[in-house]
Every structure is written in structure tokens, then in C-alpha cells.
Design goal:
Serine Threonine Protein Phosphatase 5, Tetratricopeptide repeat, DNA Cyclobutane Dipyrimidine Photolyase, subunit A, domain 3, globular, 51% helix, chromophore, FAD, single chain, 23 helices, 495 residues, lyase, five-stranded parallel sheet, binds flavin-adenine dinucleotide, Rossmann fold, alpha/beta
Length: 495
């Protein structure tokens, strides 16, 4: 016999609920635990997984394989080309290993739920138990509802309920221990997996150049130990000042842990547990302000997963608010390309898009500025931006990305009202006052002094930056603002 843990977005040994349960089951039955990961190029394609993210997943698998190896747990990694074939292949493997139990953590996206539903039937027919357990959120979807029994669609009351829930169920912040070491027989019985499993390079549809590989490796070291040391460093060095500094993209003020939650090398539970242990209060909404604020940010991740689980149609290319379906978007290729490549002539927007293209990451304030700029200033369908982000983010997460875009385009849960339109110049002056972030990412503006860096053509630096090839603004703020207001109003009036 054997017990199997199926790894997905949970590439860690510590504080992994399904892995922990699988290990307990294996111990109880006196059989070895096997871990497995299926690489699905079609899922990467369908879910727009960024090449930088695929690369990160593969590098994390390498570390995971070594960590599990120390516990004599084999990690089987296999590529299955057709995603429809995955349930069938999983069943075959389980039979080959004579497995009686399969464990996995729940994923809430629609495709994943369908795949699991299909597998449940075939496993039942073969007398194999399949336990899918909620793990990714600190408070699982379905646990919180408003006084009238409804799912919250506004963050603040939801967050109050979330905090109250954690306070009244303190065990949700208890961490799950790592799996136990396998019995000695495992090495021999599964010698084939131990000896012949290698982590493949990226599938053809997600391959990257050697230069990118090197760059991503140095920007984003992989593995759960790296995630833990980042978390520790953040909690000892920066979390206290987080509330004051988190909105300034030139500062190293945030945790840079989002890539680790997306790969599952760190759990949100561990993050909050650790942050709380640095606070002067056990309560999540008391004590040091920076810690309270950071915990409330990590909770946004839970919030958007609850939204996705409750309103799965957001997974189907539909705005949360159906009345926003009728906005007449511009599909201007030139403007879209300018936005993607950081050539809009709005320095803060261009700096941010270039950061994304270079690092696979963008600061949160800049995600809001660039998303708003695409949807409102360029009036381009926000779903094109959502897709572009997903295709380039190392931390790409459907629920958070979709939620962030819905917020910025005013089509989602808890949106900013459509008539509140970010002024990119004011945002730039407020959050990158000295222009440090802009100059870092837009070398054409390196030598531009003072306030001109925010708007060089209007502030006397036009000649210099034109020579360096920096474009003029693709739209005029005031005009685009008026166009946006009129277009949203018109769209909302149309049934
Ligand atoms: P910190 O400031 O240290 O925050 C801690 C953690 O809180 C983050 O790691 C993240 O897990 C969570 N968090 C913070 N803000 C948000 C938020 N607004 N929504 C959800 N979770 C949040 N985050 C993703 O993880 N994946 C995405 O695909 C993604 N797409 C986004 C798209 C748009 C348009 C916007 C506006 C935001 C998006 N975010 C996304 C949220 C946020 O920008 C990132 O989580 C954050 O920038 C990551 O950096 P950090 O780890 O240093 O964050």
C-alpha cells in the first residue's frame, strides 16, 4: 500500500494541511507516503501562466524534491500533454503504486474543480479514497457571511468578520507540522522514482531565454527556505514601518512574498502567524500599526478567493457587476502596445510596465495606476490588461489579479466608483515625488531633474527626452477623463 499527496500550488513541506494529513494517514496504515506533481502545458496555456512563473515552479520543485528526499519521500514529477488525460493518468499511477488514499489541497478555480469532480468518480470506482482539503486561505471560503447570511462583496465589513472569526477560532493560525520520515522500505520500493525523476525544463510553450533564466534566478531565489528567510527578514527589519512606506514604489518596504504564496512555498497562515508573533498584541487589530496593516493586506488575498469561490462566473470572463458588460471599449492596438511596452509617455505608467516586463513583478501602487490608466485613460477593455498581467507576473493569481482589475476598472467587487479616476501625474508626484522609481526604470529620463520627470514634455524637458526617444503622452489627461466618464455613463445606461 501507499498514500499519495498530489502537489499543486502548495510546493512546501511545512504547514501544508493535505500533506500533513497524508503523512498521518500513511503512519496510521504503516505505509510509505509518495508525493506527485503533474506538469500540464495545456493548463499553463489555458490559465495564461507566465513563463517566469513556470520557471519559478520548476525551480521550486527541485528544492522540494531535495527536501522531501531528506525524509525518504519520493517526488514523482511527470508531464501530461493533454489536460483531459490527467485524471486517467493519476488513476494509473495510484494503481501502479498500490495506493489506497489520495490527498490534495483545494483549488477554487472552475477548471480545477471540474478536474477533481471527474477524478472523484473514477477513484470511487477503484476503492481509492480522495480527500481534498481547504488550506490556501487562513479562513476558508464559506465560513464568513453577513448578518443576513449573504457573502460579503465589500472588503471592510468582510475584514471585520474575518478578524472576529480568527479571534474566535484561534486554531486557524496553528501550523501543520512537516511530514514524518518514511519507513526505510520506501527507498527500496520506490527506488525508480528516487533515481530517475528529474525536474524537466520548461515546456515549449513557456520556454525562456538563458538570459531570462539567469535574471529570474537571481531576482527570485526558489524554495520554502528562501520564503521563510524573506518572511523573517521582513518581520524583523521592515514590517513596523510598513503602514508608512508601503505605497512608495522606490522603497523596499513591502514583503515581496506574493510569488511564494502563488507557488505555495509559503502559506498565508504561516505569514500571519509569524507577523503576529512580532506584535505586542495577540489580537490581529491591535498593537503595532505596521503589523496590523500588513495582516489586513494578506487578508485581501483571502477576500478575493472567497469572491471567486462564491461567484465563479468571475472566472468566465465576466465582470462581477453585470451592468458593466455594455461599456463600449476602444480596441486601439497602438495604445495597447504602448501600454504593454511602457511607451505611453506617462513616466510613472511606463516605469511600472517596464518593471513588470523585466522582473515579472510590479509594486501594488503601480498595479493600481497602470490598471486604471488602461481601463479609464485608454478605455481599453480591462480584460486585456488582466490577461497581460497574468502572462507576465511571477505571482499571477487568478483571484487577486481579477479582483485588482475589477477594483481598478470599477467593474468588480468593492470597486472605486467609476467617476473616481486616478490622475497619473498626481499619483506620480505623491508616491514617487523625487522620481527615483521612474529614473530607475525609464533610462531616457535619467538626467531629467526635479518635477519635470513626471511630465517632461509639459515641464520643459521635452527636447532632451525627445532626443533620447521618449514618446509624447499618447492621451491628454483631461480629455481622456471626460471621454471615460461619458463612456461609462453611456454603458451603464444601456441594457
Ligand atoms: P505586501 O505589500 O507585502 O503584501 C502582503 C501580501 O498581501 C501580498 O504578498 C499579497 O499576498 C497580499 N496582498 C496585498 N495586497 C493585495 C491585494 N490588493 N489583493 C490581493 N492580495 C493582496 N497579487 C497577487 O498575489 N497576484 C496577482 O496576480 C495580483 N494581481 C494584481 C492586479 C492588480 C490590478 C492589482 C491592483 C493588484 C494585484 N495583486 C496581485 C495584489 C498586490 O499588488 C500584490 O499582492 C503585491 O503587490 C505583492 O507584493 P508584496 O508581496 O510585496 O506585498
Amino acid at each position: 500500500g501507499a498514500v499519495v499527496h498530489w502537489y499543486k500550488c502548495d510546493l512546501r513541506t511545512q504547514d501544508n494541511k493535505a500533506l500533513h494529513l497524508a503523512s498521518e494517514k500513511a503512519k496510521e496504515k504503516g505505509v510509505p507516503l509518495i508525493a506527485m506533481y503533474i506538469i500540464s502545458p495545456q493548463d499553463f496555456e489555458a490559465h495564461l501562466t507566465a513563463p517566469v512563473r513556470v520557471d519559478f515552479i520548476l525551480r521550486n520543485l527541485q528544492v522540494l524534491k531535495e527536501d522531501l528526499g531528506k525524509l525518504d519521500i519520493p517526488l514523482h514529477v511527470e508531464t501530461v500533454e493533454k489536460r483531459k488525460a490527467i485524471p486517467g493518468r493519476v488513476l494509473e499511477l495510484l494503481k501502479e503504486w498500490d495506493a489506497s488514499h489520495l490527498f490534495a489541497n483545494t483549488e477554487y478555480e472552475v477548471d480545477e474543480l471540474r478536474r477533481e469532480a471527474k477524478l472523484v468518480h473514477s477513484l470511487l470506482d477503484n476503492d481509492i479514497s480522495f480527500e481534498v482539503t481547504p488550506d490556501t486561505c487562513v479562513v476558508s471560503p464559506g465560513e464568513l457571511s453577513s448578518g443576513t447570511g449573504k457573502q460579503y462583496s465589500v472588503y471592510s465589513p468582510w475584514y471585520r468578520a474575518w478578524v472576529a472569526y480568527v479571534h474566535s477560532h484561534p486554531d486557524v493560525l496553528d501550523l501543520f507540522g512537516p511530514p514524518s520520515k518514511n519507513p526505510p522500505v520506501a527507498r527500496e520500493r520506490f527506488s525508480q522514482i528516487f533515481e530517475s525523476t528529474t525536474i524537466p525544463s520548461a515546456p515549449a510553450n513557456k520556454s525562456i531565454t538563458p538570459e531570462e533564466k539567469k535574471r529570474f534566478k537571481s531576482l527570485w531565489p526558489a524554495g520554502e527556505h528562501e520564503a521563510h528567510s524573506r518572511l523573517q527578514r521582513f518581520c524583523t527589519e521592515r514590517i513596523k514601518a510598513y503602514a508608512d512606506n508601503r505605497n512608495f514604489p522606490s522603497e523596499t518596504a513591502t514583503s515581496s512574498l506574493s510569488a511564494h504564496y502563488a507557488a505555495g512555498t509559503l502559506s498565508a497562515r504561516t505569514a500571519i502567524h509569524t507577523a503576529r508573533s512580532h506584535n505586542t498584541s495577540k489580537s490581529l487589530n491591535a498593537g503595532i500599526q505596521g503589523i496590523q496593516t500588513w495582516i489586513s493586506e494578506v487578508a485581501w488575498r483571502d477576500f478575493y478567493k472567497h469572491v471567486l469561490a462564491h461567484w465563479p462566473y468571475v472566472c468566465m470572463n465576466k465582470p462581477f457587476k453585470p451592468e458593466y458588460t455594455n461599456i463600449n471599449w476602444e480596441y486601439d492596438d497602438a495604445n495597447f502596445t504602448a501600454w504593454c511596452t511602457g511607451q505611453t509617455g506617462y513616466p510613472i505608467v511606463d516605469a511600472a510596465m517596464r518593471q513588470l516586463n523585466h522582473m515579472g513583478y510590479m509594486h501594488n501602487r503601480c498595479r493600481m495606476i497602470t490598471a486604471s490608466f488602461l481601463a479609464k485613460h485608454l478605455l481599453i477593455d480591462w480584460r486585456m490588461g488582466e490577461k497581460y498581467f497574468m502572462e507576465h507576473l511571477i505571482d499571477g493569481d487568478f483571484a487577486s489579479n481579477n479582483g485588482g482589475w475589477g477594483f481598478s476598472a470599477s467593474t468588480g467587487v468593492d470597486p472605486q466608483p467609476y467617476f473616481r479616476i486616478f490622475n497619473p501625474l498626481l499619483q506620480s508626484e505623491k508616491f514617487d515625488g523625487a522620481g527615483t522609481y521612474i529614473r530607475k526604470w525609464v533610462p531616457e529620463l535619467e538626467g531629467v531633474e526635479g518635477k519635470a520627470v513626471h511630465d517632461p514634455y509639459e515641464r520643459g524637458a521635452g527636447k532632451v527626452v525627445e532626443k533620447r526617444g521618449y514618446p509624447r503622452p499618447v492621451v491628454v489627461h483631461k480629455e481622456s477623463r471626460e471621454r471615460c466618464l461619458a463612456r461609462y455613463k453611456e454603458g451603464l445606461g444601456r441594457e
